[in-house]
Amino acid sequence: MLQQVLAVYGLQMSELDVKSFGSGLINNTWKVSRYNSDEAYILQRINHQVFKSPENIAYNTRLIGNYLAEHHPDYLFVRTMNTRSGDDIHFVEGEGYFRLVPFVKDSHTVDVVQTPGQAYEAARQFGRFTFLLKDFPVEKLKVTIPDFHNLTLRYNQFLQAVQNGNVSRIKESAAEIQWLKEQDYIVKRFDAMKHNPDFRLRVTHHDTKISNVLFNSNDKGLCVIDLDTVMPGYFISDAGDMMRTCLPPVSEEEKDFSKIHVRNEYYKAIVEGYTAGMENELSEAEKSGFFDAGCYLIYMQALRFLADYLNDDAYYGSKYPGHNYIRACNQVVLLKKMLEKENILRSMQ
Ligand code: GN1
Ligand code: MG
Predict the structure, then answer these.
(1) What residues make up the domain containing 170?
(2) pLDDT band at 167 (very low <50, low <70, confident <90, very high)
(3) Domain count, the chain
(4) Which among 90, 145, 183, 255 counts the fewest CB atoms within 10 Å?
(5) How many angstroms does the Cα of residue 331 sit away from the middle of ligand 1?
């Protein structure tokens, strides 16, 4: 199958080393390297269950690529490659949609953040991406996943799963369900933010984990990658998911919850990096929204993992029994740690 896909790009499988790559939960990713050469590519199969119209991703990427090439030609934008017949997305019957991008020479990604400096750089890159697109007509972007970061809808989906989901899993999760329901003031804060015109609708990335930033060999950020969920949105999505993934020293996969805590110096790095990347674009209301952004994203991810567990893992899948329950509990602990530090963190933004 991969052989057939590579061939449409004029690449011969026999000359290439093809390895599974990265840790994403949704798409399949391979690194394709030419033997005895530094030529390399990233091949991805887009999850068609999640992205109902993969052409919309290709459309958005094209539009943004053209805009940046015209207005910010110095920005390193990783363009999707065309097949020999000139398409930037390739469909294989029974297999799905594929795209190929060049692997940027001497760049690397970071899976687990190691220093506040890396968090600063990554946050700066996400802020910069939104900043460079501040005059781009945001309404022209297609919505690749409707209501993706709509917390109100995510909360309702969670309540539905609590109503109609797997009965024994609902029993087992009773304590987490109860606690998450008690935090529904976060949904109200999100609604208020959405109706506040000082929170501008912007071009936002919506998947701002550190592995979606390319770094150079000096650990300076080069650009952001993985533009599948670039859509109209609010800065809290991007600042918030950075916090969710960078504040604790362990990931959402960690089963030993005693390792989960919130690191103040990483919080500071994200606030400063994102603000620097956005230059003077953030409104005063947005600048005071960093702490809420972190809570919003952690809360939403806890709801999504727990709802998926109650729905028999239909969305995220599961590598061991109880996997999504563990992930949800991990995010619940992280949110508790975040809330414990509310005063100090708010004073740092
Ligand atoms: C998914 O596949 P990946 O890791 O890029 C998810 C994100 C979640 C993340 C949690 C389209 O992203 O929203 O935050 O898992 N993406 C989609 O690890 O649902
Ligand atoms: Mg992604």
Answers:
(1) 116-346
(2) very high
(3) 2
(4) 255
(5) 14
